[in-house]
Amino acid sequence: MKVEIYSDIACPWCYIGKRRFEQALDRFPGKDGVEVVYRPYQLVPDAPEQASPHRAWLAERYGPQSVAMDARVTELGAAEGIAYDFDAALHANTFLGHRLLHLAETEYGAAVQADVKERLLKAHFSDGVDVGDRTALTAIAVAAGMDGERVTGYLAGEEGADEVRDQLDRARSLGITAVPTFVFEGRWAVQGGQEADTFLRVLQQVAEETGALVPAPGTGPDDSAACADGSCAV
After folding, report:
1. CB within 8 A of 106, min separation 6: which ones?
2. Which end of the chain has fewer CB atoms < 10 Å from its terminal CB, N or C?
C-alpha cells in the first residue's frame, strides 16, 4: 500500500497529523507493506526568502485570534509529544525544504525522507530554525545521514525545482486545498490531522479494498467512520 502525504513544513497540523498517522501505522498489522511518501504543498507560496517572526506574521494575517490559534495547537501538540515554540518560530518560504525532501526520497528512500521531514518540522516549530536557509537545511540533511556536499550543491542550484513544482501542480489538480491530506493508493483521501484510531480504520479499509489484508471478524471499519469529514475521495 502506498500513502502519499501532502503537507507543508510550516503547517502545525501537518506535524500533529504525522505523529497520529505514525501511531496508527505502528498498530496496523500490515505496516511492513506500507510505503509512506511525503509530497509538497505550500500554504504561503509567496512567502519572502527573508524569514520573519511567526507571531507577527500570524497576527497580521488572522488578527487577535492568532494567539488562541497557536495556544490550541500547542495544547494538542503536547498530547502527541510535540513541543511547539511559536515565540521562537520563524515564518519562512518552504520551497527549498520541499526540494530537500524530494532529494531525500529520490536518492535515499522513503525512510530517510521521513526522518528529514520530522527534523524539518522540529526545527521549524520547536527550535526556531529558519527552514528557508540553505546552511540550516544542509545541517538537517547531514543529521539524517545525507551527504553534505551533495546537499550543498543541490540546494545551490535549481536541481529538483521543476519536479517539486510539478508535484505542487498535481496537488492542485487533485483538488487539495488544505493540508495535511493523506492519499491512499492514489484513490482514497483523508484530510486533516485525524485521530490515530481514524487513520487505523482507513488503513484497514484500504487494505481490505485492495486485498492486502484480510480483516479479523468484526474488526472491519465502516465508510462513515473512515470518511466522516466527507473528504475521502480524490
Report:
1. 160
2. C
Whether 47 and 81 have beta carbons less than 8 Å apart is answered as: no
Find all residues with CB under 8 Å of 28, minimum gap 6, and list them: 34, 200, 203, 204, 207
Half-sphere exposure (CA, 13 Å, Cβ side) for 168?
17
Nearest to 173 by CA among 160, 189, 157: 189
**Sign of dihedral through CA atoms 112, 167, 1, 10?**
positive
Q: Within a 13 Å sphere around the CA of 154, how many CA atoms are in the beta-carbon half?
A: 22
The CATH number given to 2-182 is 3.40.30.10
Cα(39)–Cα(8) distance, integer angstroms? 9
With cell 543529521, the residue in question is 143
Local structure of 5: helix, strand or coil: strand
Q: Are 110 and 36 in contact (CB under 8 A)?
A: yes
Helical pair 134-143 and 148-156, crossing angle rounded to 10 deg: 150
